[in-house]
Amino acid sequence: MISKKICMVGDFSVGKTSLIRRFVERQFSDQYLSTVGVKISRKTVAVEANKAEKTDVQLLIWDLEGSTKFKGIAPSYLQGSKGILVVADVTRPDTIEHLEDHIQLFLSVNPEGLIMVAFNKSDLIEEAKLAKILAQYQFTNQPKVLGIYATSAKTGQDVDNIFQSLAEKII
Amino acid sequence: MKPLLKKILAPRRIEYLEVSEKFTIQDTSDGVQRFADAGQKVRHGKDVRASFPELVGVEDILLEVLHGEQPAFELKGIARYSDHTLPLYFDLYAIDDEDEDTGKKKLMIFFEDVTERMVLEQTLVQRSNEASLLYNALASAKDYINKIITSMADALIVTTINGQIKTINQATEDLFGYDRNELIDAHISKIINDARFWYNAQQKFATPGKIFKDIEVVCLAKEGTEIVVSFSGAAINTELNLSQELVYVGRDVTARKEAQKVLEFARREAEMASQAKSSFLANMSHEIRTPMHALLGMTGLLLETELNDEQRDFVETIRISGDALLSLINEILDLSKLEAGQMELESHDFDLIASVEEVVEMLAPTAHAKGIEIASLLPPHLPRQMRGDKMRLRQIITNLVGNGIKFTDVGEVTLEVTLVEESATTARVGLAVTDTGIGMSPADQQKLFQAFAQADVSTTRKYGGTGLGLAICKQLVGLMGGEIGVESELERGSRFWVEIPFALSVKPEPGATPPRDLVGQRLLVVDDNATTRRVVREVASSWGMAVAEAATPAAAVEVLTAPGEPGRRWDVLLVDGDLGLTDGIVWGGELLLGMSPQAVPGRTIALLKSNRLEDVKRAIEAGFTSYLVKPLKQSKLLEAISATTYPPETQTNQTAPGVTPSPALPSELPAHPAPPLPKLRILLADDNMVNQKVALKQLERLGYQADVVANGAEVLQRLDKVAYDIILMDCQMPIIDGYEATREIRRRYQHSNGDSGEPREVAPNRPVVIAMTASAMKEDEQKCFAAGMDDYLSKPVRKEQLQAILTYWGNRLLEG
């Protein structure tokens, strides 16, 4: 079975670990536990490799320590990653602003890497506000950004979709 | 691995793996298993990536290291745990090596346990991140509050308890015209020009939790203008330094205050104008009545002097115009009182039927002069004794019936009274005035009850009038809780209807039981007017009489000559004096003459119009036993029908009340009544010379003499010398007015007798005081009685009224 490395990238406390937990363990906790270093989770997904033929892919999901004012993301973790989920917290505008930086960093390590954008915690704001954010951040200048999702690890909204979609693209 | 190296690495908790070019495991240290991914055994010959997924994807780099193209590969802080309470972290480090025996290249991968360091780091990062989140939350909350404060339309000021300004918003700057830095740290007295609120820390509002609201304060703006600001606020406790701060929220109410002032001013103006209007009306009423009094009084006196026909015509015209003017003034007064909501209704017991009949009787001459019939239709079992405002009811009926007569040239005007509803204590009475006059179009009916709106302007020209009457009626009826309406058809006539609820009087209904012997008696009425026949039929039938009707002499003859009739006796025969083309009196006389003596009815009554009293003599001479004047009143009809027969030769001067079985000659009818006049000593007090003259002349005509004074002071002086019986007192006089003079008279005579409790009871020797005033409002009348006057006459005073009141009091004095 093929294994593929993908990374979760974003500011601290945007919900990277929670998204993985929802995707892999189908669980969610409100409690904040910051990740240090890196932790790898595995999840096998069935993807349509080519022409209706399904194959299983083992995703090795690297949960990276969130970026803070004091400490950025170590590029060495990103080496060999086929794609990333770059995550922002819709309730914190600065985390959205930083998406672009994270994307740049990833592409500098893996110019051919693929990117999915997760606007997480989308359950915490009104529809209208969310629609406004989604309309504003389209990343049209980033051809490697292949999908933008409003996710919620709490409700599960679009969590499977975003991982599945990334898996399909990197095959 | 060299034994030496192994010895060095073991105590440092560093484990290692030897990996081939194909990533298969070739050698391991003893403890390396614990760094492997869960459930993955580290064994010789196995792909290292299965146990260490960190290496997936970085194979190229590892090979570069293997071939010496890169010095090393490193990954730090890899977590390997499933339960975060039992964490394991390690750093991974890969370098190249060469097999001593084979010289083959291989990878040496070292694993160093860094759990201790990473757990510390985790705690640190966690704390730091949480702090950051908190800071962010605080910052955005503060930002949010600041945005609210800044965008508030009201001025917000926070001061220390001593009044030092700590915070303001944009609205504060705008309102007072200061820059932020001019106000921050300044004392609040710089802008709030009112020491009551801000200096005393012991103020009530300085207690936390207390809120003060909408206190209006005059404040000072930078350029010196005063602005009125409505402040609300409270004290807040600041936890940090345990001191208090005061928060004020202020709104500029200068414009509102100004508007309020303008409004208040306008309201006061309007009130004053309304008062002025009221008192103007009252004054005008008084002022107009005074000369009217003279005018009508003198005209009346003039009419009694020797005048030639032309002069009489002129004087009559003056009198009629004067009457019209007086009623116009009354109407305007009524209307303005109604519209000002000042009209008060009285509530007295009254006889409904008598009231209705009186009005119709009063208006009958006008109707008869125009050649039209007038009648009131009263159902036999109508309750009579009501409680309400009789005068206003009469006013309404007079107006409606008067209008009917005014707009009818041919035919009749009838007033029909019905009982709409009756309960134990109330009766809703319906009055309908039907005429056969000019009628109205629906459009004209619309504006009928509005003041100053007559049906059309040409009507005013042709028929006269002010158009106020119906407006007054509508308002009066409304005030009484009733309804008014009209149905009308052009050229066919109108029907005005009114429904008014009255309380039933507690007074017993008069026993109007007709004599039993009327039951079964036969009555024939001959009249061309259907309404009159109906009145007679309804009333007489209710008494148990057998009634026959005839509209023409021919019809009457038919009735009288019907089979079995000739020779049979009719008890009562009523014949209209005016049977259209036939003279009813002549015809009736001949009819009676032609009858056999035993067939002649016991009572033969001629029905005469009020303007044909000269027919009375003719009727009696023609053989009628009595006559009735139209409109027929129930009571008089009953009296006439049940009266004992008086043969013509036994005529006496005895006069049954209301009936005139053997009347005096018509010319003698209005002769001077000459009751024995009590000798009265009368004092007339009036400051107006003309009024003095009018009253003196009227008194003289009535056979009285009077002394005259011009004010209240003179009244009191004269009383010292002469013991007057009656004082006719004007109210508004110079020096001492009529009210004051009366009070003084009361005082003077109070001691001479004990009973002063009953104001209407005349003490011996005390003169009777009768107000004679042009102040005609109801309050004026009350004012007179309150001052102690005994009776009241409003000017213009008619001679008849004066006579009535003097006779009444004269008799009282004689009796007393």
Tell me what you see in this structure:
The complex is a heterodimer of chains A (171) and B (816). Chain A is an alpha/beta fold. Chain A has a single domain, classed as Rossmann fold. Chain A has helices at 16-25, 75-78, 93-97, 99-109, 127-136, 159-170; strands at 2-10, 38-50, 53-64, 83-89, 114-120, 145-150. In chain A, a hairpin with a 2-residue loop joins strand 2 (38-50) and strand 3. The longest helix of chain A has 12 residues, at 159-170. The mean pLDDT of chain A is 93. Helices cover 39% and strands 22% of the residues of chain B. Chain B contains 24 helices and 29 strands. In chain B, helix 20 links the parallel strand 25 (682-685) and strand 26 (706-709). In chain B, helix 9 crosses helix 14 (469-479). The longest helix of chain B is centred in the middle third of the chain and has 50 residues, at 254-303. Chain B starts with a helix and ends with a helix. In chain B, 32% of the residues are buried. Residues 645-674 and 754-763 of chain B have low confidence and may be disordered. Chains A and B meet through strand 1 and strand 2 of A and helix 3, strand 3 and helix 4 of B. Strand 2 of chain A pairs parallel with strand 3 (73-79) of chain B, so a sheet runs across the interface.
